[in-house]
Amino acid sequence: MTADISQLDLDEAGAVLAAESARFASFGWMRGTSGNLSVVLTRDPLRLAVTASGHDKGELTPADVVLVDGQGAAVHGGKPSAEAELHARVAALTGAGAVVHVHTVASVAMGRREPGGIVFKDLEMLKGVGQPAHDVEVTLPVIANSQDMKVLGDRLEAARDPRMPAVVVAGHGLYVWGDDPRQARHHTEVVEWLLELELAQRQALR
Q1: What are the backbone angles phi and psi of residue 187, rounded to the nearest 5°?
Q2: pLDDT for 36 beyond 80
Q3: For the residues of 18-32, what is the DSSP string, one character each?
Q4: Per-residue pLDDT tens for 112-150?
Q5: In this structure, what are the phi and psi dihedrals at residue 162, rounded to the nearest 5 degrees?
Q6: Is 8 helix (H, G, I), strand (E, B) or coil?
Q7: Which helix (H) or strand (E) holds 138?
Q8: Does residue 113 come out as left (phi exceeding 0), alpha (psi in the -120 to 50 range) or beta?
Q9: Cα Rg for the chain, rounded, in angstroms?
Q10: Going by C-beta distance under 8 Å and a sequence separation of 6 or more, which residues neighbour residue 173?
Q11: Around 3, how many Cα atoms within 13 Å sit in the side-chain half-sphere?
Q12: What's the mean pLDDT when you consider all of the chain?
């Protein structure tokens, strides 16, 4: 495989990503073959295990991952997600050890309502992304979509707020990251809760 990464390392990463994918799929956040996950295996050089393209995310096996480099190109395995390059960009930019991309209704709906960013404040759940529950406003950035991952990565880099480990891609979904898959999962669930609350409040006021 590589000098620093064995097949066992990739298999173990695949097992973790399969379990995380099944969890998110059970919530309806990765319908069909949508969404993708990654975990960093080495930092120098940057190598990530990324879920393979075209697979039902509720039925992944440990073998359904691809080893990619810092540009998202396959180093070992089959075809990675088309968004592997963005996963690598996020990992390099933020220092994250894992990246989650899910397609949730709330992220798409709120991205359309607040294209300039979604502001949260005075909510206990903000503690779940490392922020105070009160006396602070935290903005979840919203960026325009693109099929060009370099363009999308540039937009993410320009818009991201270090206080919020997530970005909404308009008309597409949610990217979230953390130090490891468990933290990335927790961040994803917290940010999605915040989005669902905001959407429910908007709908209640109509």
Answers
A1: -60, -40
A2: yes
A3: HHHHHHHHHTTSS-T
A4: 999 999 999 999 999 999 999 888 899 999 999 999 999
A5: -55, -20
A6: helix
A7: strand 137-140
A8: alpha
A9: 16
A10: 34, 35, 101, 102, 103, 104, 107, 108
A11: 2
A12: 95
| Look-up of token digits 């937009």 | 155
Beta bridge partners of 137: 121
Cβ of 58: how many Cβ atoms within 10 Å? 17
d(CA 67, CA 162): 27
Whether 55 has a binding-site annotation, put simply, is no
Six token digits for residue 206 = 């109509």
Q: Is the pLDDT of residue 151 over 90?
A: yes
SS3 152: helix
Rounded (5°) CA angle 23-29-30? 80
State the burial class of residue 204 (Cβ atoms within 10 Å of its Cβ: 0-12, 13-18, 19+): exposed
Q: Please name the residue that has the structure tokens 């073998």.
A: 63
77 backbone φψ class: left, alpha, beta (φ>0; ψ -120 to 50): left
What is the reported pTM? 0.96
- Tell me if 134 is assigned to a ligand binding site: no
